[in-house]
Amino acid sequence: MSKPRVLVTRRWPVSVEAALSERFDATLSKDDAALDAAQLRDALLSYDAVLPTVSDRLPAALFEGDAVQSKIIGNFGVGFNHIDVAAARAKGIVVTNTPGVLTDCTADIAMLLLLSVARRGGEGERELRAGAWTGWRPTHLVGTKVTGKTVGIIGFGRIGKAFAQRCHFGFGMDVVFYNRSVVDPAEAARYGARQLQTVEDVLQVSDFVSLHCPGGAENRHLMNAARLAAMKPGAFLINTARGDVIDEAALIAALEQGTIRGAGLDVYEAEPHVPERLRVLDNVVLLPHLGSATEETRTAMGMKVVDNVTAFFAGREPPDRVV
Ligand code: DGY
């Protein structure tokens, strides 16, 4: 029997590409370039499985008509708001993702952003590299102490919990969170955290607010101008979730006007575009979507995709099925 034909849209860790090529008739990415809509449509028309990443947009229009051949989309990543899963489901296409394996690394990047923006690490590094450091002085790049401060988490899933744990047990912070569903207080306490009822309740008391909810329609612009204005004066905003959770234009205005003190961002509304007005600000730390970017995690993510697709073509339930 011939092996299923699978298309990988970007370069993956070499060991994962090898595992995939052993099990499937795999077309690997040669140049690691993002695929455009026409190329993704062609992929859906001609491959049994398409294995995209967050940089591949798969809106409903790509699934239209009777010619779609793909039976499974194995997303390389936990977030899947770039795929219209309702349109995929309507065509009977299974969608899988890669939960669990990127929890710690993404929480680490949120911590890195929190510390960098609070302690002005980005500014210091830029100054030093520019040869502009004139030596130690008591008033130089004075930041904000983290220990004893309150951090508010929006979305208490795996990554939100891992971040809470770091903040509370690692850095002595008070941790509150908002979550759509009620979390057992004993479970929250395991992560050193306490649930509040509304997003506004969290914003009102938090010196740092960190976003850990999914992107897509349900949370689009959850942090809008009104909510940014509701943050404590002098507070910081951290985003390792998805760019569209923040109204980026409103954030830029809030940063420029000093409504909030700073932001640490790993994700943006129209990646890889990052607005010039954001890039010129000193009170932001900007990373290029590095949440899961460690060798160990990217390999584990890839192997999860391989396992999901393998299970599917063996007639078993894929372990990480989304729809
Ligand atoms: C994820 O896994 O969701 C990362 O953000 C990359 O897509």
TrEMBL record:
Keyword Oxidoreductase appears in the UniProt entry: yes
Domain D-isomer specific 2-hydroxyacid dehydrogenase NAD-binding: 112-291
Name of this protein: 2-hydroxyacid dehydrogenase
One GO CC annotation: cytosol
Family of the protein in this entry: Belongs to the D-isomer specific 2-hydroxyacid dehydrogenase family.
Pfam families on file: 2-Hacid_dh, 2-Hacid_dh_C
Domain D-isomer specific 2-hydroxyacid dehydrogenase catalytic, residue spans: 25-322
Oxidoreductase among keywords: yes
Species of origin: Rhizobium freirei PRF 81
Keywords: NAD, Oxidoreductase
